[in-house]
Amino acid sequence: MLIRYKKAFEKIAMGLLSFMPSEKDLKQLQQTIQTYETKENWQLFLWKEEDIIGVVGVEVIDDRTVEIHHLCVNPSHRYQGIGKQMLNAVREIYKDKEIVANEMIESFFTKCLTEEAEN
């Protein structure tokens, strides 16, 4: 289940985001969290099962488009379809908008859409 980021989840969110290659540097990671906390059109969501095991961050570009900037699942929970579930949950939240991915997660995003089209 996707839940909205709150300041109380900052350490968990930073830990999950740090698994992404672009967020290895602490200053960059702090800047990313600050962006999600301060920019109204940027939203960070956490994936919660028993524990919080994933994170997905989006930017509402305009009234038609949402861009996914970050998507990460705790390494011990990967290859179980959680990333795909997170994408589907984001698509449900923004069902009236086109969902696009930035270059960092585009290949994963495309793979999920391709698998969906084949089923």
TrEMBL record:
Keywords: Acyltransferase, Transferase. InterPro entries: Acyl_CoA_acyltransferase, GNAT_dom. It holds the Pfam family Acetyltransf_1. CDD domains: NAT_SF (cd04301). Transmembrane segments: none annotated. It comes from the Bacteria. Residues 3-119 form the N-acetyltransferase domain. This is Riboflavin biosynthesis RibT protein. It comes from Aeribacillus alveayuensis.
